[in-house]
Hints:
- This protein is α+β, with helices and mostly antiparallel strands.
- A five-stranded mixed beta sheet has the order 2-11-10-3-9, with helices on one face. A five-stranded antiparallel beta sheet has the order 14-13-12-15-16. A four-stranded antiparallel beta sheet has the order 5-4-7-8.
Amino acid sequence: MGGRARAEVELEQLSKQIRYHEAAYRAGVPEITDAAFDEMVERYQELADLLGIDPAERLDAQPGADHTAGFETAEHRVPMLSLEKLSPNRRDSSGEPMPFSDQLSAWFRRRKKELEIDELPVIVEPKVDGISVSLLYTNGRLRRAVTRGDGRKGDVITKQVAQLGTVPTKLAGTIKGDLEIRGELYWPLTEFARFNATLEKPLINPRNGCAGMMKRKKPAGLEETGIRAFFYQIAWDDGVELPATQNEALQWLADRGADVYLSEVFQTISEEDALRYCEDYDARRGTLDYDIDGMVIKIDDLAMYSRLGATGHHPHWGIAYKFPPERKPTKLLAIEVSVGKSGKLTPVAILEPVFVSGTTVSRASLHNFVELERKDVRVGDTVLVEKAGEIIPQVVEVDKTKRKRGARRFVPPKACPTCGTEAVSEEIFVYCPNPACPDQVRERLRHFASRQAMDIDGMGEVLVDQVVDKLGVRAPDDLFRLEVDQLAALDRMGKKSAENVKAGLEEAKERGLGRVLNGLAIRHVGETMAEDLAAYFKTADALLEFASRYVADDEEVVQTVAPAKSTERGAIEGLARKSADSIFHELDSPAVRKVFAGLADVGVSLSVKAADIRELAAIAGKTFVLTGTLPTLKRTEATKRIKAAGGKVSGSVSKKTDYVVAGDDPGSKFDKAQSLGVEIIDEAALLALLGEAE
Ligand code: AMP
Ligand code: ZN
């Protein structure tokens, strides 16, 4: 596979993971650290840049939006931003990988220049892997505790924090005025182990456990957990007399009864020493009673903070050093081949269970057979496992010194392991071409019912498996033909749940063409493409009619969506010639036509939702470019509304652009629009065009 195709696959996987973890975060059950999440987002952005993905098409991922239903929220007076990181992926202007030392030097240089100083005293602190919290003290008394949330506002957890008994509800001595302190709630490892031993169902790891505990609605009993906090920063104050440096501020907090890292803090003016302290600290990790995921290098002189400011994403007073991910050896017991919803065959490593970065790993995707061949992974090998972005288990490499004699290379399957159909290759992937393949049927139905597709309430994976195995469901339309009695007879169901599922199915009938298209698991048709196709064709009939003419090589039809010259844009944004060939052939296949007929038969709506095609004269046919952060609309949302009203959204400004919609911190597109004389409007004006102004 070319680098591009590889990047596209990675990007698609990343978007799924980001969505998943964002949802988990919002539900108050995060499975990964903020840092791991940010790393995924960073990598996503890097790939999206590399692939030239239109910014309007990108995931507008918000790191750590941790709101839990039922919690009051509060705005942060000073936003809780994430930190800039030294990144193993960073490259210099000539494309060479940049060592941490060079990255840190560049950071020191920039700060010294901005501050017009020759020497920059910094301090280095461990970065505890817990839950950030912002604590407001008035006249020394704890008045409010708020989670990081989306960085601008978070959930109020004052009662929960106060109940712990380990976070001072009153600072020692007499303090006048308001003061907001930032800290990290964490579960000491020994306390976690002690508490976990008393539970029937143990918690996975201290961080998740701590996050869950602090979002308990009823605080009673939290004092039993042993959860504590480290304080690392004073965010702002009103009228409190505070020391002038970060180091002294920590001492000041310690004197008032708050836990700080004083003994762990390293002060220096040398960037080399700062980096060495970070590297050396890694060795101490195992001896600490808390998890840390890196170090933070901060400017010591607090007066400088206000002179530095921040970008929209990171403050300028500090930079984080992240430890390399934990890597563990284990034995590869077997290589299984799994069949995906579109028939893709994926090799999966079955591992002797091993504890890595917080969870036990016993399976890891080997991605594809080319990758497997490149790494030369063989059954019986000792392999090194780590978690990419601390989440997805990966086989990094084989320890060849431990290879047993006679270990044989893995041979990619010639046939589908499930249905025995001869496998076909496309680029680097191998597919089972049989749409009736039992594994494919199951995976497709799971996808069809899932949240991103038809969102059928009550139809989870377990139920899908049952209706396939016991009720003979094979195609999406079969689902809608299920009777309440049939459903009620399944395991763990009953009349009431069966009725709910039936109601869920009825409701799903009205999701519209875009969701249906996404649900069919057609190769190259993800969520965005499905919506774009639906918006363009409006009905399944029009789409299928078009597909058959496309397949018949009807010149006129082929030209509209996929111009021969790759520089020209087709009528459907982002649809490349190669994908068009694949998509329309599949749509025109007897199997897919049969599904559409079946869905029409059971009354599933196969046209674009009426609400989605309110064409507006002020928008229709016009090209928009978005830049900067809009005050209320997310990029994806603005794009969706413009498209729904018949407009186009493009990633770059040209003379053909009708409007540039500019928000805060607009980029170079703003300047370009000015120089070309393109009309620049703000969000309010866009809403007015959309007919939504008050
Ligand atoms: P990140 O979210 O990875 O960009 O890093 C920022 C977060 O690191 C903050 O919101 C804190 O919750 C956490 N953190 C832990 N220890 C420290 C520390 N010593 N200094 C600053 N932030 C810290
Ligand atoms: Zn098969």
